[in-house]
Specification:
Layout lengths: L1 E2 L6 H13 L12 H11 L3 E5 L1 H6 L1 E6 L5 E5 H13 L11
Parallel strand pairs: 1-2
Antiparallel strand pairs: 2-3, 3-4
């Protein structure tokens, strides 16, 4: 769980969403340093999806889910986040590298 900035209510919302997810699955909270460094830090420890709270989260109740392997980013409603992540956990994993690479 990564608030984009440490102001404007983003850390508070990020902590609330983090607490909800921790009841269902392992989750980390990180607000230290620039967002790019936080993404890389989570990539290094093997976190499959980074969830970012930003100004749009406060406006419409959605978050950005960033996939570690594809770097794809999707907007997901906070109320649907746990179900979305649980669904992703059930999906078969395949390497993003081309076969034979």
């Amino acid at each position: 769980m990564l608030p984009l900035v440490r102001k404007d209510g983003q850390p508070e919302l990020a902590k609330t969403v983090h607490r909800r997810l921790r009841e269902l699955m392992q989750a980390e909270y990180d607000e230290g340093g620039a967002i790019g460094r936080r993404y890389r830090r989570q990539d290094e420890i093997g976190t499959p999806w980074a969830v970012t709270i930003d100004h749009q989260s406060l406006e419409d109740g959605t978050v950005t889910v960033r996939d570690r392997d594809s770097l794809r980013q999707d907007r997901v409603a906070i109320d649907e986040l746990a179900a979305e992540l649980e669904q992703r956990l059930r999906e078969p994993w395949s390497s993003p590298k081309p076969a034979g690479a």
